[in-house]
Amino acid sequence: MRYTLKNIAILTVAFFLTNVTFSTSFAATVEVEMLNKQDKERMVYSQKIVRINVGEKVIWKATSKGHNVEFIKGGVPQGVKKFKSKTSKDADYTFDVPGIYAYWCTPHKTMGMIGFVVVGDDKSNLEIIKKLRFSGKSKKLAKELFILYKIF
Ligand SMILES: [Cu+2]
After folding, report:
1. pLDDT tens-digit profile of 125-139?
2. Which protein residues have their CB within 5 A of the ion that is ligand 1?
3. Which of 21, 25, 135, 137 is deepest in the core (most CB within 10 A)?
4. 39: Cα separation from own chain's centroid
């Protein structure tokens, strides 16, 4: 191919189109805020259920202090190592294993500060997730989320 101006223009456009496709399909990152208050709720993640593709990342912003993210024991796909972030610090996690991940904020796990990440639309660990023991306010909330969002 000759390096005419027209060919260079075509190559440039092709290059940008490829990059755009890549960034939309692989580089998605979801941001969740850790908050003391959102509307009428106290001690809450800004999004309770996040759906992402395999390999995508969630960032939890420490917008309010005193919160963290801890994967619930038995509440993640098999083979996933435990994860517990530092209180009052931003945290991030890249989800390479498909399935449902249940997590809570360690200090507020009985106050309804729970969240779920569904990776790759894989619900194969659904029955295990349903059997997780939540207590206090989180018990009712988990049940409501299961019904409201119909993912479980
Ligand atoms: Cu908290």
Report:
1. 988 998 999 999 999
2. 43, 67, 105, 108, 113
3. 137
4. 21
